[in-house]
Each structure stands twice: as C-alpha cells, then as structure tokens.
Specification:
Blueprint: H1 3-21, H2 27-48, H3 59-83, H4 88-95
Helix pairs in contact: 1-3, 2-3
Organism: Kribbella sp. HUAS MG21
Protein name: Pyrophosphatase
Length: 101
C-alpha cells in the first residue's frame, strides 16, 4: 500500500468528517485526535485481554474492535504527518530501515 496515496484518500474523508460535524481541523486537532485514538486502542486492548469491562461484547467482537483501533491510530497518524509535511516513507527509511544495512 502506498502511504502517500492512502494519506490523500484519508485527507478527503477527514475533511468531510470535519465539515459534517462543523469543526475546524486545526493543527491541534490532528494531535488531539491521534491521542484520542491511542486511548481507544488502549481501551480495546484492555477489554481484549480481560482487564476491562467488556460491555457485553463477545471475545470475537472484542478482538475485531481491538484490530480496528490499529487502523484508526495509523490513519490518524498519517493525517497528522501530512498536516506537518512529513514524508513518512523517507523518515522510516532513514530512522528504522537504515539498521538493515
């Protein structure tokens, strides 16, 4: 999957989300929304691992919710990076993949 193309698609969705709910996606919003999504991932993890109330969800539903929260975090991170003109593939290459050499 091409991260740049994905980020462009996500941007269109995010713009529509902001418009439909009537708020400005200012620079702070991207970071705060990312933090919210990380919190939801944490909650889903605790539920999935039996350390939080399941709210009546089945183990399969908890697993699905946990897995879906990864997508929320990744998508919001891509939007935050795009907002700040971060070339994530280049940064991954220089920060992480440089250790392959």
């Amino acid at each position: 999957m091409d991260l740049e193309k994905l980020a462009q698609r996500l941007e269109k969705i995010s713009v529509g989300y902001g418009e439909s709910l009537g708020f400005d996606r200012d620079p702070d919003w991207f970071l705060l929304k990312l933090q919210e999504e990380v919190g939801e991932l944490t909650q889903a993890y605790l539920q999935h691992t039996g350390r939080a109330r399941t709210k009546g969800a089945t183990p399969a539903e908890l697993r699905t919710a946990f897995h879906q929260e990864f997508a929320d975090v990744l998508c919001q991170l891509l939007l935050f990076a795009q907002q700040h003109d971060v070339d994530l593939p280049a940064q991954i290459e220089s920060k992480w993949l440089s250790y392959e050499r």
